Amino acid sequence: MKTKNYFYLIAMVIGSILISCEGVEDLESCDGEDLADTFCEQLDIDLIATFCSDGVNNSYYTYNGVDYQCDGIEASSCESALSNITAQMQKDEPDCFAKKKSTDFESANKKISIMAENLLLEVRNKSFN
């Protein structure tokens, strides 16, 4: 009789663990923007900056396989990451950026920030549903 009771107890514990873990999911989402469209229309290259966030505690940009962490989860906290990406793009594609002005970089950064804000809004909406 005791064995049967232990079996039920173990089954209940395992069942409750499985049920409690079922609702946990990774809500991280990513979206990318090809900046070659903005900077280097005449060159056949990819300059893709990708923004990823879980909307709660982790946001970062990825460019050319390198992650550039943001200071927080808001797109506005990613200014240093964006400037690091821009500097790396200039090193990677000097022909593309040779004649660009700072206003060109500002418009590209604004474009990426808007993409990031839209993604954050989408991730947060998913987490509340």
Provide a short characterization of the protein structure:
With 129 residues, this protein is α+β, with helices and mostly antiparallel strands.
Topology of helices and strands:
Blueprint lengths: L1 H21 L6 E6 L1 H4 L8 E6 L5 E5 L2 E4 L9 H14 L1 H4 L4 H27 L1
Antiparallel strand pairs: 1-2, 2-3, 3-4
Percent helix range = 40-55%
Rg, alpha carbons: 22 Å
Low-confidence stretches: 20-24
What do the pLDDT scores average to? Answer: 76
List keywords for this structure.
alpha+beta, four-stranded antiparallel β-sheet
Q: What does this 3D model show about the protein?
A:
This protein is of the alpha+beta class and 129 residues long. It has one domain (29-128). It has five helices and four strands. A four-stranded antiparallel beta sheet has the order 1-2-3-4. Strand 2 and strand 3 (59-63) form a beta hairpin. The longest helix is centred in the C-terminal third of the chain and has 27 residues, at 102-128. The termini are far apart.
